[in-house]
Amino acid sequence: xxxxxxxxxxxxxxxxxxxxxxxxxxxxxxxxxxxxxxxxxxxxxxxxxxxxxxxxxxxxxxxxxxxxxxxxxxxxxxxxxxxxxxxxxxxxxxxxxxxxxxxxxxxxxxxxxxxxxxxxxxxxxxxxxxxxxxxxxxxxxxxxxxxxxxxxxxxxxxxxxxxxxxxxxxxxxxxxxxxxxxxxxxxxxxxxxxxxxxxxxxxxxxxxxxxxxxxxxxxxxxxxxxxxxxxxxxxxxxxxxx
Length: 242
Ligand SMILES: N[C@@H](CCC(=O)N[C@@H](CS)C(=O)NCC(=O)O)C(=O)O
Description:
Blueprint: E1 4-5, H1 10-17, H2 19-23, E2 26-31, H3 38-47, E3 51-56, H4 58-64, E4 75-77, E5 83-85, H5 87-98, H6 106-134, H7 147-164, H8 166-180, H9 191-204, H10 220-230, H11 236-240
Parallel strand pairs: 2-3
Antiparallel strand pairs: 1-3, 2-4, 4-5
The structure holds glutathione (GSH).
């Protein structure tokens, strides 16, 4: 059984009640976390395109996994029923339906892609800090590592990241925003903001051990940017639910 969350926005709720219309809206499947799907959810919301926000439990995932393209989530079902993978492809696809979130001007587009590259670099740089707690063997540690040593190891790599890598990313983002104003690529949000916002917020949400929730406070330009994104009217209902 797949748990479905009927989107809260009245228009979408109405669409979902009509089976013919419900079948014509996009369906985004992921786990009940922000993770790699959040940027796509934000793009749908900013574009005002109705979508079904399906959140699978880990038990439901076991059943669903074999029928996914690459054995991974998120999966996006298009109105014609075809099922597609890869969150960054989904992000650009949603933006191309909308036309505003991903500019067609080559240089403006380059800047969006550049900012997306920076967000992706931050995710990639954090990767080992996340996966080492799940699978220390992958990083050369013994399979019988005791819990105490594992905790110390995770603490060490995460504190090292926060001290040596995190500040550089915050400084780069600050410099971009100082040049562009409200959002990463100018006065209006683009898919670069859809990608960057969840990336930055991950560190502020208290979901990663050894990362202080006030870690962005030392970077007021970035903090103000996060607040500005969260205040976007199209995202209000979404963030109220959290
Ligand atoms: N590049 C893919 C990566 C997808 C991915 O890594 N999915 C993970 C969750 S974030 C997954 O499905 N893990 C469950 C599994 O592999 O069983 C994307 O961005 O969509």
